[in-house]
Structure formats: C-alpha cells, structure tokens
Amino acid sequence: MSSKALTSVYDIDGKPPIKEAVPLAFQHVLAMFAGNVTVPIVVARGIGVDGEIGFLIQCAMLAAGIATLIQAFKIWKLGAKLPIVMGTSFGFVSTGIIIGNTYGLSGLLGACLIGGIFEAILGFFIKPLKKFFPPIVTGTVLLTIGLYLLPTGINYVAGGVGNPEFGAFKYLALAGVTLVTIVLFNQFGKGIVKMSAILLGIIVGYIVAIPFDMVDFTRVANANWFGFPTPLRYGLSFHWEAISAMLILYIVTAVETVGDISGITIGGAGREATDDELSGGVIADGVGSIIGAFFNALPNTSFSQNVGIISFTKVMSTFVVKIGGVILILAALVPKFGEVIAVMPASVLGGAAVIMFGSIAVMGIKLISSQPLGNREVLILAIALCLGFGFGTVPNALNAFPQSVQNIFGGSGIVISFFVTAILNAILPKEDSKDGFDIGKTLDHSA
C-alpha cells in the first residue's frame, strides 16, 4: 500500500479495516472510561443517593456514546465531524452537588437541560467570536488543560485518590509497566501495533495486575447482563438559582471544547480548526448535554485525554470514534461489560495518562509557538499561565469571593487563562515584526 493510501485510511473520512478500527476505538474508550464513570459516582455520593450509582453510571455511558456519535457524524451544523470522544464533565461536579442537595436530582437535571440549550445556541456565534481565539489564546487554554491534568495523571499512577494504599510501590510499578509497554510498542512497533500502543499498554497492565490481587471482580459478578437507562427517571424541575450557576459553567465547557478541537486538528492534522468545526463542536456539546439530561446524565463535553491519544497516534478517522461511541452505548446496555472496564486499576490508566496528558500540554506549546513570540506574547503567556494554572491548583486563594465565583474561576483555572489571554491579546499593542522574538529562528540559530 502506498504512503498516500495509508494516510488516507487514517484521515478524517478514512475507514481503517475493522480489525484495526475496533482496537483503536477500545483505546479511546479505555482512556476516558474511568473519568466518565467517576463523575456520577462522586455526585451521587455527594447528594446522598448512593443506591442510584449503578444506574447513573449506565446513563453516563449511554449519553457519552450518543454524544460521541453526534460529534463524529455531523448533521447540518450539529457536530464537528472530528474524532471527538465525549464524556461526563468534571467541571460540573462541585456545583452539581450543591444544586443536587438543594433541589434534588430533578432540579440538577433541569438546570443541565437549560444549560445545554444555552451552549448549543452559543455555538452558532463562534464564527464572529473567532477573532478572540487566535493561536496565542487557544494554545494557552490547551496548555493550561494539559498542565491541570498532570496532577490527575499522577493521582492515577499512585493508585487513585481515596485509595488507603495511595502511593504504594505496587501501584507505581504497575503504572511503570504500563508506561514502558506503551513506549516500546510505539517506538518499535509498526502499523496497527504502533497506533494501538496505548491500548496494548493498558491491556498488559491490566493482566499484570490480576495475579497480584489488584483487581476485584466482585462488581462484575454482581452486575446485570442487560439493562436500559429509563429516560426522565427523576423528572425535571427548573430553578433560576440552579440554572444561572449552570449557564456560567457551560461557558467554561465551551472554552474547553474550543481548546480540545484545536488540539485535535493541530495534533492530528497539523492545522488550525475551521470555524465550522469549532461551531459544530460546541453546538454538539450542548445538544449532547440536552440528551444527557433526558437520560439522567450530567453535562457532556469533549474529553481531553482522547485529544492526547490523537496527537500520539495521528489517527484522525471519525470511523474509529464512531465505533467507540457504539462500544459506550453497548457498555450502558450491558452493565457487566462496563464493569469489566470500570474495575481496571487506576494506576494502569495512570501509566497511559502520563503520555496522554503530557501530549495535550505539548500541543498547547506547539500551537503557541506556531507564530513568532515577541515580548508582548511572552508577557501575555506568562501572566495567563501564572494566574490560570496558579489559581487552578490553589483554589483556596479565591476564598474572599462568593462560592459561585470560586466555582467558575477556581478548579481548573482554564477560564482565568482564557479571559486573561483574550483580554490582554485584545488590548496590548502589537509589536513590529522586526522587533519581535521569533522562537523558531532562535532555536535554529542555537542549533
């Protein structure tokens, strides 16, 4: 097969053979599965409905599968037609618990529904807002996402937050086995083996963990073989206080999605995202959350770890993530299958996360440096990263502000990075190119 033909198979419209597409799809599912099911677990426990956890996990998987298919297929303006894998957003956890404790699941899901409508409408205005998303802005957002995820990856490596043996050598060793396996397959493998390196590393890590009694299959044995998530099981109710808090968080989600889409096109295709891709992606984000609300799931958004996979493998085929979406739906309908993935040790995912999350940060750097970096750009980047990543990792520094403000600007710090970069980029005068500092030329001369 010629190199041109080989490339086309893995392009956006390419269709790899099923024997390749299925493993590549499983690679995406395994990468996001833990994050997708963790959100409903945390929220359910936070609002005292532990008995609903199994059902809410089913709902989360079904919503993620449907939303992923929407992004990949693109109908009219709905969807980016990019390999975007969707999942339940961590960004809504703290606010979701507060709303759930105040208004119950019906009030929480009602606010999610209205917020999804709001984000879908917002997506139609991405094109006139595109001027606020130059490479310095989207690159900084992407870099902040990557940096913010790094501690999460290390938490996985050490065994997962809440693990009584957190940081034990066995978890570090298991993550190391997974990481080394991925590197070996990626560097010395060829074809599908090279592209499936993350999947193969996770499988090897999973298998190694079993004889060391690091996997508990009790949940698998107790899970049902079949079950369908009943729509509107908890009903919908609407409360302005809950809705207003959600609307602001949906703006955050839209910003993250813009960053993820930019990361996919830069990391997988070496180009910037088009207006239609950004607009369609944000619209689909909102519609996915609307559908999720009907199926008792929290808001959906693009999953950044899967952006790292695309950067690592260069596989842009939407056919692959369509299969991934189908796998997620099947996991929702067959709970026992989903539990097999859910009981995977966190440190196995941690070994893969080191590469996936690091790749996101590197893509941000790549996007930022795609244009000459003058003193102005360095100043913008320095301030945005310090404030964004700083407040994101030290959210208590915002204790002087109301809880609603802390929920928006604390946590990941992505919103702060976005607003600081966008505002400074808009108001600071641009330098003459002759006075700028071109990092690319500087590196060439130093070499």
Automatic annotation (TrEMBL):
The protein's topology relative to the membrane is: Multi-pass membrane protein
Any one of the GO CC terms:
plasma membrane
The transmembrane residues are: 21-47, 53-70, 82-99, 105-125, 132-154, 166-185, 192-212, 315-334, 340-365, 377-396, 408-428
Coarsely, its chief localization is membrane
What the entry lists under InterPro entries is as follows: NCS2 (IPR006043), UacT-like (IPR017588), Xan_ur_permease (IPR006042)
Q: Does the keyword Cell membrane apply?
A: yes
Q: Which GO terms describe its molecular function?
A: xanthine transmembrane transporter activity
Pfam families annotated for this entry? Xan_ur_permease
Q: Could you tell me where this protein is found in the cell?
A: Cell membrane
Keywords carried by this UniProt record: Cell membrane, Membrane, Transmembrane, Transmembrane helix, Transport
Q: Which PROSITE patterns match?
A: XANTH_URACIL_PERMASE
**Could you say which protein family the record assigns here?**
Belongs to the nucleobase:cation symporter-2 (NCS2) (TC 2.A.40) family.
Cross-referenced PANTHER family, in alphabetical order?
Answer: PURINE PERMEASE C1399.01C-RELATED (PTHR42810:SF2)
Q: What is this protein called?
A: NCS2 family nucleobase:cation symporter-2
